[in-house]
Each structure stands twice: as C-alpha cells, then as structure tokens.
Q: What sequence folds into this?
C-alpha cells in the first residue's frame, strides 16, 4: 500500500491562466461543445503534469464533457469517472471513443509492429 501523502505536499502557489473564452472543443478534431462548463483538455493535462505522479489513479466525480478523461488517457493515468446525466455521459463516451480511435489510427508504435 502506498504512503499517505499530506495535501500540503501537493500544494504549490502556481496560477494557471487560460485565455480562450470561446472554447468550443478541439478545433483540430472539429469538435463542438458538448457540456455548458466544458474545459479544454490542455487545462487538465497541465494540472496532471504539475500535481499528479506516475501511478496515481484519477477520480472525476463530475465527468461532464470528459476532458479530464482524455487528458488522463493521453498521459497514461488510470481514470475513474462518474456522471449522473445519462445523455451527458453518452456524449462524453462518444467524444472519448472518437479521440481514442483517432489516436489508434495514427499510433506509430502500432504501425511499426
């Protein structure tokens, strides 16, 4: 079992500033906003890079658009998510599967095997 870590061990005095008030999803993937409070994957990725350590399991109790799930997938974290609204869950599931499928399509490691 892992060592219990004090919350103060993770505390930093950094401030993240994200300048994009019109975020509508990933424009490269032609995404549209699927949730009213959708955040960019890049924000979650930056938080994970700064505060999570390899082997951490990430829990998002308000999954919403699934941006946190995509960031965890990209960075190799185990992820657990909950969403009460079935329609929102299904929308994020479709978004995630599209993202994961797109990555598999262009995965250089798979092409070389």
A:
């Amino acid at each position: 079992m892992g060592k219990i870590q004090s919350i103060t061990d993770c505390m930093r005095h950094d401030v993240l500033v994200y300048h994009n008030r019109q975020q509508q999803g990933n424009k490269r993937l032609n995404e549209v906003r699927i949730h009213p409070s959708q955040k960019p994957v890049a924000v979650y990725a930056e938080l994970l890079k700064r505060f999570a350590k390899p082997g951490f399991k990430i829990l998002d109790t308000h999954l919403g658009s699934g941006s946190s799930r995509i960031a965890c997938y990209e960075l190799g974290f185990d992820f657990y998510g909950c969403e009460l609204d079935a329609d929102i869950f299904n929308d994020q599931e479709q978004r995630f599967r599209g993202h994961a499928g797109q990555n598999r399509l262009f995965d250089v490691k798979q092409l070389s095997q």
Summary: The first strand starts at residue 57 and ends at 60. The chain is about 45% helix and 5% strand.
